[in-house]
Design brief:
A hairpin with a 2-residue loop joins strand 1 and strand 2. The strands form 2 sheets. Strands 1-2 form a two-stranded antiparallel sheet. A two-stranded antiparallel ribbon has the order 3-4. It is α+β, with helices and mostly antiparallel strands. About 35% of the residues lie in helices and about 10% in strands.
Length: about 130
């Protein structure tokens, strides 16, 4: 599969993500990811602009957007980019942790389950709920 219908992009997302630091591939990956983020922003805006029961659909909906790789070119699965929007969480901007003393992603899942009313204190390899969100 060549191209994704974006000006300046001739590679598929997967090929661009395995860039090996090639300037051309990194540039194309940036264009692809910028287009993805614009689509996500449009979706979040529609949820925010849609009212139901005295609140917005964004307030009633948790949107989790992530990658399973922190660095696709090296196939690393640490330091994952995660975006959590809506759902009544504390959205205080960017939350980061010490890379050596990190918290399991499953702690976020425990927090998300608790937010929707499930009395859970463990999910997978979690060590508790992520209280920062």
């Amino acid at each position: 599969m060549e191209g994704v219908g974006l000006d300046g992009v001739t590679l598929a997302h997967h090929d661009a993500s395995h860039h090996g630091q090639s300037d051309d591939k990194v540039s194309q990956l940036a264009l692809i990811e910028e287009a993805e983020m614009k689509l996500l922003a449009g979706f979040l805006t529609k949820l925010k602009d849609s009212k139901e029961g005295g609140t917005t659909l964004l307030d009633q909906t948790a949107v989790f957007h992530a990658s399973n790789l922190g660095n696709a070119s090296a196939h690393t699965c640490d330091n994952l980019p995660i975006l959590l929007a809506g759902g009544g969480f504390k959205h205080a901007g960017h939350v980061s942790f010490d890379r050596k003393e990190n918290k399991p992603l499953s702690n976020l899942f425990v927090r998300m389950l608790q937010q929707i009313g499930l009395e859970m204190d463990k999910f997978g390899s979690s060590t508790g709920a992520l209280n920062e969100v």
